[in-house]
Amino acid sequence: MEKFINITLKVWRQNGPKDKGRFEIYKLNNITTDSSFLEMMDILNEQLIGEGKEPVAFDHDCREGICGMCSLYINGHPHGPDDDVTTCQLHMRKFKDGETITIEPWRSAAFPVIKDLIVNRSAFDQIIASGGYVSVSTGGVPDANAIPIPKADADEAMDAASCIGCGACVAACKNGSAMLFVSAKVSQLALLPQGRVEGARRAKAMVAKMDELGFGNCTNTGACEVECPKGISLSNIARLNREFLCAKLQD
Ligand code: SF4
Ligand code: FES
User: Fold this and answer.
1) CB-defined site of ligand 1, < 6 Å
2) Which InterPro entries does the entry link to (predicted)?
3) Region 122-249: CATH code
């Protein structure tokens, strides 16, 4: 049932990458619990603009859990308190009347803050560009359909491919590791015959780029899997480790 709540927002404001940043407190009244978290942020910005203040910069695009842009740390959790949803899929019914909600950007050396709640996640693009693709000829659609692929492998590849590159796994990890992301991107291709051809080169190149960009090491704490909005499994990290080890043995 729709309710209306009054909330206090503690929002990270930072003018640019070199600014120290600070929290600012805002009060919002009569927010419908049917609104999404980002709609609530829109209301906050309308209020700020009405008061002649600068609106809060935050990232978003699809607002339906696909693009991975809405990278907010809410009350200590990437994408907030709900399970298996992105920030844009989070609703205000998850919060109580009178609650104080703390909103921060991803905190990771590899994702520097651009402004307020927006971080630079182009490090992920660089990792993909280093090898997260198939560059051999795989024929046309009829050829792909003619290759028998076990259902279990196809399902696992599809599960891995559901990674939206949001970066919550990195933000959740005390080491700032990107292993869950990289392992999903390696797995979605390694599980299919079209991706196997370049499997060894891909695993080595993507791990090397991840290390070069300053992401931390994985120490198997599992925080990434818990906070991932797409339920990407830690088993992908085990597969990446196997792929990487086998590739190194072939050197
Ligand atoms: S593995 Fe999950 S948390 Fe990490 S980038 Fe992909 S979808 Fe986001
Ligand atoms: S805005 Fe696209 S996933 Fe949230």
Assistant:
1) 163-169, 180-181, 184, 228-230, 232
2) 2Fe-2S_ferredoxin-like_sf, 2Fe2S_fd_BS, 4Fe4S_Fe-S-bd, Beta-grasp_dom_sf, Helical_ferredxn, SDH/FRD_Iron-Sulfur, Succ_DH/fum_Rdtase_N
3) 1.10.1060.10
What is the tens place of the pLDDT at every residue in 151-210? 999 999 999 999 999 999 999 999 999 999 999 999 999 999 999 999 999 999 999 999
Structure tokens at 163: 């990674």
CA distances from 174 to 69, 180, 182, 199, 221 (A): 21, 13, 17, 29, 9
Which ligand 2 atom sits nearest the alpha carbon of residue 87?
Answer: 4
Q: Which residue has its alpha carbon closest to ligand 1 atom 6?
A: 163
In this structure, are strands 113-115 and 118-119 parallel, antiparallel, or unpaired? Answer: antiparallel
Q: Domain coordinates of the chain in residue numbers? A: 4-114, 122-249
When the candidates are 3.30.70.80, 3.30.420.10, 3.10.20.30, 3.40.50.2300, the CATH number that belongs to 4-114 is 3.10.20.30
